[in-house]
Amino acid sequence: MIAAATSPLALGVPFLAEALQKLGLNIEYLSRPEVRIILGLLVFCLGLIFLVYSLVCSFNVQIEKQKDNIKLKFGIYWDKDNNPLCPSCKLPVSYGKYAIGGTGYRCFSCTKTFPLTDDVGNRLKPEQAIQNL
Ligand SMILES: [Zn+2]
């Protein structure tokens, strides 16, 4: 009891120290430097995990907002800056001639190639499509 009252932790929160001792928990080891360093690192890591989680969540919200501001035309989604997006997963696609799927917009996430066609089914070039968006 006397030892607990003189430890820095017990000086800060004596009622808590007494309560823990009544429960049979010895909190003396908490005032040892190595334990304090470990506890400090633990708190720091938890803070870091929370920070990273918050950043990932806000990044996902931004992606969701971008996905809302798109339109479907010529078989491809287009964002507000006329960038082509996959009609399936809405990630950016790149135009080219591919061994599998032929000429069109390729989504490397879905591993599919989407041809650029007008309403009747005629093939279009990206420049023609962007002009008519
Ligand atoms: Zn996709």
UniProtKB/TrEMBL annotation:
<keyword id="KW-1133">Transmembrane helix</keyword>
<protein>
    <recommendedName>
        <fullName>Transposase zinc-ribbon domain-containing protein</fullName>
    </recommendedName>
</protein>
<feature type="transmembrane region" description="Helical">
    <location>
        <begin position="35"/>
        <end position="61"/>
    </location>
</feature>
<keyword id="KW-0812">Transmembrane</keyword>
<keyword id="KW-0472">Membrane</keyword>
